[in-house]
Amino acid sequence: MCNLLTQSCERKYSALYIFSIVCYNRSAFSIESYETGCVFYMLTISKITQQKKNESRYNIFINNEYKFSVNEDVLVRYHLYKGKELTKEDIVKIKASDSWSRAYADALYYLNFRMRSEREMRTFLQKKEIAPAVIDEVIKKLKEEKFLDDLQYAQAFVRDRANRSSKGPNVVRKELQQRGIHEATITKALHEYSNEKAIKNGLRWAKKYLQRKHKDSHKQRMEKLRAQLVQKGYNHDVVSQIVATIDVPFDENEEKDKLRIHGERLYRKYARQYTGYELKQRLQVALYRRGFPQHLIASYIDELEFD
What we know:
This protein is α+β, with helices and mostly antiparallel strands. It contains 13 helices and seven strands. Among the domains are: 37 residues, no CATH class; 102 residues, Winged helix-like DNA-binding domain superfamily/Winged helix DNA-binding domain (Arc Repressor Mutant, subunit A); 56 residues. The longest helix is centred in the first third of the chain and has 24 residues.
């Protein structure tokens, strides 16, 4: 059934009136413009069903054909119901709103396990193949609601590392950098990790390290301890205080035994290529580089026979 209507159409001419024909059918109608040949469709929702696997989402049918799905909050926000008429522009807006709604729901789910940095959240949403503009809007909303705050995240992260690990402040700084936290924010957050706490943590770890079995000289052992503490993120001042606090007595008999073990292995190695004075010199240098005292090296060398 067709009815002849008179309708104004805003195109190039503000005062132009044209005639249009409106053609109706059971579930949709189109407005055909004689002036431009454009067709505007009105579509009617024929059915709405709840998804079985995700009860918060609903399938929208047009002309008894599935067209798209939306979250429950979008369904309510746009007052979607059976018989409601929509334009294509309406559907574009609804889909965009649903995309934001789904991204926001995913973000809240991601935050459900622990705090996240902005970079972590952005990376998570990008892996979901969400449009960059939608990601920006979701992150803006999360910041407004204080669900996403890099300073709070960094401070909590520092406190956790300081209280539950042996990592020093410099390693914690690198971890925060890897999570996309700005340098100024990191510096502020690291106030949560005091020097006293760093010394306490480093000292506890150092004592455990010194309990391990080893074949190093006393000097080399202490040098390795220093290097390990620096590698774990403690600055040189803190390391010096830790090493000064630890009492590691020098046991000469133990040192002689370790020197002998190293000396015998080195002697077998160099004796394949060198003899006499050159063998003796290379052995002395190698043992000295391993941190053994000069007088113990000399005593050991005197016991050996060189051709």
